[in-house]
Amino acid sequence: MSGGSVGVAEADVIVEALRHSGREGIPLVAFIESAGARLQEGAGALGGFGRIFSANVALAQRVPQISVITGTSAGGGCYSPALTDFVVMTEQATMFLTGPKIVRQALGEEVSAPDLGGTGVHERNGVCHLVSADDLEAVALCRELLSYLPQTAGDAPPVRRPEPAPLDDPGMELPSSSRSYYDVRAVIRGLVDRGGFLELWPRWARNMVVGFARLDGRTVGIVANQSRHLGGIIDTEASQKAARFIRTAERFRIPLLVLVDTPGFMPGSRQESAGVIRHGAELLRAFAGATVPRVTVIVRKAYGGAFITMNCKDLGARAAFAWHDAEIGIMSPRSAVEIIHRRELEHPAGEETAERLALLYAQAQLSATAALRRGAIDDVIAPHETRTRVIEVLFGRRRFPRRVGGTPAPAPAAGLPEPPELRDAAGCTLWFTGLSGAGKSTVAALVARELRERGERVEVLDGDVVRQHLSKGLGFSREDRDTNIRRIAFVADVLSRNGVCVLVAAISPYRVTRDEARELMGERFIEIYLRTSLDECIRRDTKGLYERALRGEIGQFTGISDPYEEPLAPEIALDTEREAPEESAARVLALVAARLGRAEVAA
After folding, report:
1. Is 436 annotated to bind ligand?
2. Catalytic-residue membership of 273
3. Domains of the chain (ranges plus CATH)?
4. Cα separation of the two ends of the chain
5. Which of 62, 92, 378, 427 is the most exposed, having the fewest neighbouring CB atoms within 10 Å of its CB?
6. Tell me, what's the pLDDT at 484?
7. Contact 299, 259 (CB under 8 A)
8. Which among 34, 367, 508, 584 is annotated as catalytic?
9. 584 annotated ligand-binding residue
10. pLDDT tops 60 at residue 207
11. Which residues form a coiled coil (predicted)?
12. Given this model, what pLDDT does residue 367 score?
């Protein structure tokens, strides 16, 4: 109707659908074919699109959003899809801000709709993630995408029955010459579960491959240099592609496997003019800022800044491995020799000398064992053991020590136990935060009971109990509250480092102190936000504390006279107004199972 144009009424319906998706924690799939704003409604229609865009952005922190473009979408009908997590286009679909007629009138340019904004354009510029032959195939792609994603941004990704990859997959054999190319997707298929790899943006920035797969039944995101295109070199578009994917994986708590084979960043005036520094920095920012578990495997070469940028150990990788023939260093051996030995190479036998010196340099400085000695990687492994080692680190109990100044932490002396961070693996802290009356203690008690029944070591630190015993004498000033939370965090850190599942139920109203607890415990910290309205908390208050606070009889009461700062990116958000405590507890247990790699926890 009306070409799918959007007026005020249509915008209101769309906004309500988006908000409903967020309230109920339901992923959103939108089928879009729109002429844009309805001309007859003028600025009112434009304002309607503004409300839609705002709702898209707000929903991004809550549930997955997929847009399916089935026909022609113009103007505002393009921006809403571009704000969602994934865009699927049918082969006949087109998207453009300004249609061919307006382009001809404004610029005198004759261009067809497909050439202006067809799938052939948008699958190469990063607007479109996937292309389908028709609407039915688009639906199938949406289902496949959703099979990898959590129900909400706070949930753990779904777990399926493991389907091991075939042994001795030929795709794991790389060419003997580092100058020969291969298809990294064959390596990926040899590592992940049967059923393959869902590649995103397959025709955009083809020197970088990203997508979803499964390892041991669990969702992982893959970021890999593609030797087959530009030798795997990183340029501006490859940086953009990888950074966008990493941020998506972070939002949905999806661990990352990074496969590295790159000679570095693309040199030249064109790349410098295109902002390769800025885009490379965005890729660095994406990896360094990601909190999901990440494992890097250098399969052939990693030179210079690209070694750092592709999720090196010091950028936060949980572990970094290299295959036996990998080369790791500042630059290729031939380039290094031409700088270091330039005078020797001026002699008649320079070419022969260069080859010999390059070989010696590679053996001494670039080998995987040299990188291991320097602490740049954690281990040198064979291709056939890569899958097992990656699963062990991403989902199992293995941890590698951090290094100081590039030097690996010393191994424990013979006969002595490993330090807590190596001994523990299953310990964690479930930090329940929310207003008084949100249900923190209730849900924590249910989770604790289930964990104990399944043989886990569990301790509960209730905020009121801790204040009565550990923090006796503290008041409710900001300083005293911060002190109380820091004491709770210290105890939780000690216990969780030694294999205990600690459940903290405390209002902990200030974001900065919760972030301090997260920094202290790192990956052992799981923030659980009980999202409950103030009205509902007041309704549940049988002691009448909220009423007394509203009358001014109780000062510095969180939610009334003192602020509560909502978490920005909790591991899970529970809607305790709409779901029973048992449902909330089940969601938490599923997340714990994914974090600990223990399927029986969620059984």
Report:
1. yes
2. no
3. 2-148 (3.90.226.10), 170-326+367-395 (3.90.226.10), 332-366 (no CATH), 421-602 (3.40.50.300)
4. 49
5. 92
6. 86
7. yes
8. 508
9. no
10. yes
11. none
12. 85
Q: Is the pTM of this model over 0.70?
A: no
How far apart CA 76 and CA 74 sit, in angstroms, is: 6
Instruction: Find out whether 34 is annotated in a ligand binding site.
Output: no
Average of pLDDT values for 57-64? 89
- Rounded Cα distance between 185 and 197, Å, is 8
Q: Which residues contact 548 (CB under 8 A, 6 or more apart)?
A: 554
Give burial (CB, 10 Å; 0-12/13-18/19+) of 342: exposed
Calculate the average pLDDT of the chain. Answer: 85
| DSSP assigned state of 152 | S
257 known ligand binder = no
Beta-sheet strand order (sheet of 458-462): 458-462, 501-505, 428-433, 525-530, 572-574
φ, ψ at 85 (rounded to 5°): -70, -35
- Range in 24-28, 203-207, 233-237 the model is least confident about: 24-28
* CA atoms within 13 A of residue 237's CA, in its CB half-sphere: 18
559: left (phi over 0), alpha (psi -120 to 50) or beta: left
Pairwise CA distance, residues 451 & 446, whole Å: 9
Cβ 591 vs Cβ 153: under 8 Å: no
The one-letter amino acid at 287:
F
Q: Where are the alpha helices (DSSP H) in 192-347?
A: 236-251, 269-273, 276-289, 304-309, 333-340
* DSSP tag of 367: B
Residue 576 CA, chain-centre distance (Å), reads 26
Say how far residue 118 (Cα) sits from the centre of its chain.
Answer: 30
**pLDDT exceeds cutoff 70 at 472:** no
